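Hey Z.,

So I finally got round to the protoporphyrin IX containing FE thing we talked about over coffee. Here's the setup:
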Amino acid sequence: MELFIGGTDSSTPTVEWAMTEHIRNPNILSKLRQKLSEKITNGKTVQEQDLPQLPYLTAVIKETMRLHPPIAYTLAPEPKSWDGFTCFVPERFLDSDIDFRGRVFSFIPFSSGRRICPGMNLGLRMVSLILATLVQKFDWKLPYEMAPEDMDITDRFGLTLRKAQPLVLILTRL
Ligand code: HEM
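And the result:
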């Protein structure tokens, strides 16, 4: 199955960037797949009620939103606030109390205060379930024997910060 990620809402760029970072960091993809298989057993598919037990999945989504803020104009990332600013390291969020509510100025993917996104919980559930299902149920590879380092990872600036070139992956059912 060939997967093109498209769409214009704020959830889609997060899934697309998360998948892009996982292709560039296969050890993180393996770790996430392992964490999912520890909690979601017997061939089940991840469900909403499983999400609180999947802190690594949440860390991956936070790290994706840190490095690729979904809504560009408000949320330019701040290099000085983060060690290894350009590196994709979900572990930085594991023992941290930084949540999605915008209480720390360097991480406000859903804005904060009175402007905070009213769809935050729904958006997070959508991103978490889509990403977890794709990781859990499919093996991913780039088409045309392309190498991860050949991927175009430039942003396309707009209301949402999308990849300039859409991600295309070949998915095989695991
Ligand atoms: C991962 C997904 C999402 C992200 C990252 C996101 C992010 C944001 C951000 C940063 C803002 C504030 C924009 C500003 O400061 O003007 C916002 C506003 C808003 N979002 Fe979301 N959003 C997401 C999903 C959703 C969903 C699923 C819904 C609806 C079902 C939604 C509905 C809204 C609405 C109505 C506003 C405007 C609120 C206002 O101005 O009072 N969002 N979103």
